[in-house]
Structures are given as structure tokens and as C-alpha cells.
Amino acid sequence: MSRNLATKASLDHPVLLWTRTLAKAHAHSAAVPNTAVAASPAEAVRAADIIWSCLGDDDAVVAVYNDVLGDADAADLAGKLFVECSTINPESTEELARRILERGGEFVAMPVFGEPSMAALGVLTCVPAGKKESVEKVKPYLVGVLGRAVIDYSGESPGKASLLKVIGNVFIIEMVEALAEGHVLAEKSGLGTANLEKFLETVFPGPYMIHSKHMSSGRYYKTEPVGNITMVKTIASHVLDLAKTSGTKLPVYELVRKQMDMVEDQKGPNADVGGLYGVIRTMSGLPYEKE
Fold it and tell me: CA-CA distance, 245 to 262, in Å (whole number)?
């Protein structure tokens, strides 16, 4: 996302980068024009008008914003717009929005849908929510820069965007599970992967084919994960908490959640969520890795 902001957006100043591992920020900046590195989140906020954040979980988001809001020089956030893209629970989003607005800042929650290759290509689906005037300031950086489409929640509370992201995860994870089961059944029944993917490409193009190729090519264990299983389990906890508080039964999702543990047990905490396919393979008498 930062690469696309730096290279595609119309900016008057370089994009300031910060990560919890500063060496990564410096390496990224060296590879991406129109960027520089900030030593801390507070330093970045002091120098910026629009602050984009995307972190791994609720705890990381709270820790970073505590640093920013605890900085005396950043006590007054007037004129600063925060765009929070992390996948966190709606309550955390609402609390963060309250804290920013109390300091005079603006806040837009904007989780995105799309795996890393889609982020790199700038074809994410963006879900901005917050005050209409704040969302309007963000829109020039969306279609054609970060994304291909916008689900516009202008005027809605920021937590609504996080709520959609959590519920959307149900569809994504159950899609991955359906693909895993279908691929193994096609392989073991004699239909074969190629014939299955002809069907998927015709009837379910788009995300289904992206994840299908991730499985059939073996990338789910050969390359960097598109979805780290530890992070995916954190999101799953948000889904199941929401289901519990709303009195909703999610029998399929609960089953897949157990299979996430099996992925981690077999391949460790950095395994890919596509390892659900590997788990179905082992349950069906095949090796975890598809050759």
C-alpha cells in the first residue's frame, strides 16, 4: 500500500514510513521512490497530514496509538486525518475513533479486502467509514491508487467497516475450505486438478481462482504466506466473539477454526492459511505438500 501511495498518488511531500522493525522500513524506502523513514510513530504523525496505519492485531494498534497519543507534541491533532486499515474488532475501532476525535483529529476506518499480491497491484477493495467529509478526503487515494473498488460507508460509524471486515472473513475462510475439499475430492476421484480449475475459472472467476492456483501450484507451502495462520486465528477469534455476542451459530466456521490449529500443529505459527488444503489432504490419506 505504501508503494502505491508513494508512486501513484499526487503528493507534495514524500511518504513517511515507519514499522516496528525499522530496518525493514529503511530497506523498503531504499527500494521505493518518494519515501523517507520516521524514527517513531509520533515523529511521523507530527510531520504528516494524513496518517495511514495497518498493523497485525488489536494489541499492536493500541500500542502504536498509545505512543502517538502520549506524545506531548502531538497532543493537538487538529488538521490530521487518521486512516486505520488494520483488521481489528469493531469495539477497538470505535474506541480508537473516540480518542482521535477527542484530540481534534479526524478518523476513518478503512479495512481492505485482498491478499498481498492484490495490494501490490493496487486492486484492493477498500471499505472507508466515518464522517462523510473525512471519507471524501481519503477517496482520491483509493481507486487507481490503492484499490479497484470502494464499498462506501460514508456517514456510518467507523466500527461498521470493521464489522464488515470481520463478517467478510467468514466468506473468505469458508471459500478456502470449500476449495480445499473440492481439490482433494477432484484429485482422489480422478477428475483431476486441471478439469476442476476449468470449472472454477468459468463459474467462479476472481478470488476462487486466485486461491485455487495458490493450492494447485503448491505455493501454500513453498512461498511466503498470503495469510499467516497465527494472524488468521486472531481474526477468527473476532468472528467467533461476534457470533457469540450476537447469538449466531457458525457450524462450518467453527469446524474450520479447529483445522487452523491442525495447520499450525503440522507447519508452525508462520504457516499459510492455504494449509487448510494440506490438512484436508492429510485427512484424506495424501501428503500435506502437493508436488
Answer: 26
Cell numbers for 99: 480518542
Q: Tens-of-pLDDT digits for all 291 residues of the chain? A: 999 999 999 899 999 999 989 999 999 999 999 999 999 999 999 999 999 999 989 999 999 999 888 875 656 899 999 999 999 999 999 999 999 999 999 999 999 999 888 898 999 999 999 999 999 999 999 999 999 999 999 999 999 999 999 999 999 999 999 999 999 999 999 999 999 999 999 999 989 999 999 999 999 999 989 889 999 999 999 999 999 999 999 999 999 999 999 999 999 999 999 999 999 999 999 999 998
Using an 8 Å Cβ cutoff, are 181 and 244 in contact? no
Tell which phi-psi region holds residue 206, choosing left (phi > 0), alpha (psi between -120 and 50) or beta. left
Q: Supply the residues annotated as catalytic.
A: 165
d(CA 274, CA 220): 5
Residues 6 or more apart whose Cβ sits within 8 Å of residue 39 = 18, 22
| CA-CA-CA-CA dihedral for 213, 216, 218, 223, to nearest 10 | 10
Helix H or strand E segment including 50? strand 50-53
Contact 18, 38 (CB under 8 A): yes
Torsion sign, CA atoms 232, 235, 236, 237: positive
Under a CB-based contact definition with an 8 Å cutoff, are residues 177 and 252 in contact?
Answer: yes
Contact 278, 267 (CB under 8 A): yes
Q: Cα separations (Å) of 47 from 36, 37, 76?
A: 11, 11, 13
Would you list the DSSP string of 222-262? Answer: HS--SSBHHHHHHHHHHHHHHHHHHT---HHHHHHHHHHHH
